[in-house]
Design goal:
alpha/beta; Rossmann fold; 16-stranded parallel beta sheet; five-stranded parallel beta sheet; 32% helix
Length: 889
């Protein structure tokens, strides 16, 4: 981590000398001297890092290097804040104003006392750097030759693994046995099958493969998967449970109670046969609370729980013996190691002879623990496929822990083996709660805001951040749980043991400090964390603060104390260096005042997911460096009496803005200034004519509200012509969403994309709203030629769309949602949908017949059905995972 910190601060100093040359002219000499000392130390870091595990003194030396790098960054950032605070507001432009437009310098720059103080701090730091460098001889640290370490190599993007998630090693017999018990028709009572084993043994992997198995397709009326964590929040768990039974229920603002869930279970499950998986149960108390919500209708319903604790399994069902998952034998261990190392299945007779001997030695050190073998295989993917490379890894690593646990040493080795630029990216996963569903875009954009991603290189910084995530996946440190329409990672998670490792390393390096439920967040200021994550904590009425914290992540803040005036989350004067702020599932109306974001001029990432917020909070925020505004599923309360002119408010660095349909109304800005904008959803149709300069748009969502005054949605095709004119210059557009109010009889202005320059580039298309039947007739030509994902909702098509849609050769994902089709029959012809992998049919009330000809949808793997009340029979769908929610409602 010291190397990452030094590289980061060197880049920052170079940028500051260029961007703020005039303001820093009086101290440029000291800054250049610091740079020289840092580069001398930088050359020592590779050798020091390799010795830190064996020498406590070297580890302490690295901590000093990291801490002083952080101090340098804080000194520079604090000075930039003072420049900003002394600038006339009329000069506040990108990235931080220099006030050169008004031929003057900020007061702080013209103040000799202030500049002398800054100079003194820089000189003191330079002297400390010299002393640190001089200690190298005492510690035996030397400069390594170029190219001697993996970290010297530039980042090489790799192809994603082609291993199917369903492939398992050593679990086939267990899978067959559990499926046999699930389908036992002689056992009508609700049976609880428990999978028990230590952490990393493969309990969740086995449960997932059972859950997705083809043998269970059509056997249960309702299938639900719930991930439990060791520090669960019961109301959040019940909310997720409710949402799994009936999507949308869990999003209600009022708390979901046990009674709500019980009522929903009785009405939705009724006499249906269900399969419920409860993954990672830790306590008897939790099982007892969930048990009363799972009715036993004597219809062979089943529950599977995974747990590390035998007594929990026995409490769940005293009449069913728990399935004890053991360690892998040598043959299975070797098979798993080779599969992960080579990223493909290899038969034993084809194992590389030159690697077999050393592979067996490596395998033995993992003691048959699957997670250790998977992680070790991820490390081997970065090594040359030679005996010497694998042998060096086996010989040089100290595999023995003081507590005798070899697995933890294998996992720690996976972190130590990371290139320096990936270490902070991995440690960032420590900030998320256990079993949290991590959005790939969420975390990678925070990496960009933290400046972990180099600015130079091909593609955008977001593209490079995605490649960093792919590399962590390839090394088996992060797991992909859901892929996006373009094949990239959409959601991911981290294994509990790897998360524990990340938390330990993050705490050791003062990279992230985690405050969990019940901890006093008042200690935030005294601990002085570089980054802080508050997980289900209770804010204080006076607000939290820390003068050197650069990132603050808040997940599910608990109820405030009894104070009618509300509490203040942030004491912004103590967070002047904050770059990343994300708050989830909080009603910010409880926050005292409307200026709680004021003064955060370094802020680059603002996430207010699943919150309730007032529009006014954005009026007083300094937006000069803001890159991402994430308002996913956030309820924004607009001030209808608002008269303030926003025409002069500019967010020059903004690249991503997304949220609910009214998010564009919260920022009535000059959209034609935002040439860097890549993501904008959703923006009102009135802003469309001003998007002409947003030439880098990749994702665009447009909302066409109903005009209640004139009782119309819009005036025929002229608005579509306006949109086409704007999109003429957005040749990077890959995802387009057009949403109209679903008032029956009012139409979405969709005439097709065939005459757009981006016609061949659009891969994802979402259309919500009725098509005007007298203007637009669906045809293959109206859809983008390379369309990968298509979602239709409330289009109210009366003619079977399948003959048209099945001709889209690149289509992989098709979702026909509420009232998209009003007919009764689907016909899919032979050879149709050649590349379709996922199909969702939801709320199609008249659909009663589905004729699937032989050879249609040849690679379909997942079918989701919901509320298709007349569709009583399905066509033959071999090897297709069927997910149904109230199929017959």
């Amino acid at each position: 981590m010291a190397e990452a910190a030094v590289n980061h601060v060197l880049r920052k100093l170079s940028d500051a000398l260029v961007d703020k040359a005039q303001e820093l002219s009086q101290v440029s000499g000291q800054i250049k001297q610091m740079q020289m000392e840092l580069r001398l130390i930088q050359a020592l870091l590779r050798d020091a890092d390799s010795k830190s595990n064996r020498d406590e003194r070297v580890r302490e030396w690295l901590n000093l290097v990291r801490e002083i790098a952080n101090r340098i960054e804080d000194v520079i950032d604090t000075f930039l804040v003072e420049i900003q605070e002394n600038c006339p507001k009329s000069c506040c432009w990108f990235p931080i104003p220099s006030c050169l437009d008004c031929n003057t310098l900020p007061t702080v720059v013209r103040n000799p006392i202030k500049m002398n103080k800054l100079s003194g701090k820089l000189n003191q730091i330079t002297q400390e750097l010299k002393l640190i460098y001089q200690r190298k001889n005492d510690l035996g640290i030397m400069v390594l030759g170029a190219g001697s370490e993996e970290n010297d190599q530039p980042f090489r993007p790799t192809k994603p693994s082609d291993i199917k998630e369903s492939e398992v090693v050593g679990l086939e017999a267990a899978k067959c046995e559990i499926i046999k018990q699930l389908l036992d028709k002689n056992e009508l009572r609700r049976t609880v099958l428990s999978i028990v084993g230590t952490g990393g043994i493969g309990k969740t992997t086995l449960a997932q493969n059972v859950y997705k198995s083809a043998e269970l397709v059509g056997q249960f009326d309702c299938c639900i998967w719930l991930s439990i964590s060791q520090k669960y929040i019961i109301n959040d768990l019940l909310r997720e449970f409710s949402n799994s039974i009936e999507p949308g229920m869990g999003n209600q603002e009022s708390p979901v109670t046990d009674e709500d869930v019980l009522a929903k279970l009785k009405s939705s499950l009724g006499p249906k046969r269900y399969l419920i998986i409860l993954d990672d149960v830790w306590t008897i108390d939790l099982w007892d609370r969930l048990n009363i919500l799972l009715p036993d209708m004597n219809n062979a319903s089943r529950v599977i729980i995974t747990t590390r604790l035998v007594y929990v399994a026995k409490r769940a069902d005293r009449n069913t013996e728990p399935y004890m998952l053991g360690y892998l034998n040598d043959d299975d261990s070797l098979a798993l190691l080779f599969r992960k190392a080579f990223q493909k299945h290899i038969e034993p007779e084809n194992y590389p002879r030159n690697l077999l001997g050393v592979a067996k030695k490596l395998m033995k050190k993992c003691d048959g623990l699957p997670l250790a073998l998977v992680v070790l295989g991820g490390i081997l993917t970065t090594e040359e496929l030679t005996y010497s490379a694998w042998s060096k890894l086996e010989e040089t690593m100290d595999w023995h822990d003081n507590d005798g646990r070899k697995c933890s040493r294998v996992l720690a080795m996976s972190y130590e083996h990371l290139p320096f630029y990936l270490k902070p990216c991995f440690l960032y996963f420590a900030s998320f709660p256990e079993d949290y569903r991590i959005s790939a875009k969420h975390v990678t954009r925070m990496w960009v805001a933290e400046e972990f991603i180099p600015k130079d290189g091909s593609g955008t910084m977001e593209d490079r951040a995605e490649k960093f995530l792919q590399e962590l996946v390839r090394r088996c440190l992060i797991q992909v749980t859901k892929k996006s329409w373009n094949g990239s990672c959409k959601y991911c998670n981290i294994h509990d043991l790897l998360r524990d490792l990340a938390i330990h390393k993050a705490k050791e390096d003062n990279f992230f400090t985690i405050f969990s439920k019940g901890e006093d967040v008042n200690h935030l200021a005294t601990k002085k964390p570089r980054r802080a994550a508050l997980q289900f904590c209770t804010p204080t009425e006076d607000g939290i603060y820390s003068d050197n914290t650069c990132s603050l992540l808040c997940f599910g803040l608990q109820e405030k104390s009894t104070n009618d005036s509300g509490f203040r989350l942030l004491n912004y004067s103590g967070f002047r260096l904050l770059r990343v702020l994300t708050i989830e599932r909080v009603d910010t109306r409880e926050f005292a005042g409307s200026d709680w974001l004021n003064g955060l001029i370094h802020l680059r990432y603002l996430g207010l997911r699943y919150c309730t917020i007032r529009q006014e909070i954005f009026k007083k925020i300094s937006l000069y460096n803001l890159e991402t505004i994430d308002l996913k599923e956030t309820n924004i309360l607009l001030n209808k009496q608002e008269t303030t002119d926003w025409s002069d408010v500019v967010v020059p660095t903004l690249r991503h803005l997304f949220g609910r349909l009214n998010v564009g109304q919260c920022f009535p800005l000059k959209w034609d200034h935002y040439t860097n904008l890549q993501t904008l959803k959703y923006v009102d149709k009135g802003a469309v004519p001003r998007l002409g300069c947003c030439i880098n748009l990749r994702t665009l969502g447009i909302y066409y509200p109903f005009d209640f005054q004139n009782q119309r949605e819009f005036s025929h095709p002229e608005e579509w012509q306006t949109l086409k004119g704007v999109l003429t210059r957005t040749e990077q557009l890959a995802s387009l969403s057009i949403i109209a109010n679903q008032h029956e009889g009012y139409f979405i202005p969709f005439g097709g994309t065939r005459d757009l320059p981006c016609h061949e580039k659009i891969q994802s298309l979402y259309l919500k709203g009725e098509w005007a039947k007298d203007m637009w007739l669906p045809s293959v030509e109206m859809f983008p030629t390379n369309l990968t994902k298509l979602v239709l909702e409330f289009t109210r098509l009366e003619k079977d769309p399948m003959p048209i849609l099945e001709s889209l050769q690149s289509l992989r994902i098709l979702r026909l949602l509420s009232y998209s089709y009003l007919g009764s029959k689907f016909i899919c012809s032979t050879g149709g949908f050649p590349n379709l992998e996922k199909l969702q049919l939801e709320d199609l009330p008249k659909l009663s017949h589905w004729d699937l000809k032989e050879g249609a949808m040849p690679i379909l793997r997942h079918l989701k059905l919901q509320h298709c009340g007349e569709l009583w029979t399905l066509p033959e769908l071999p090897n297709v995972q069927i997910e149904s929610h109230a199929l017959w409602s």
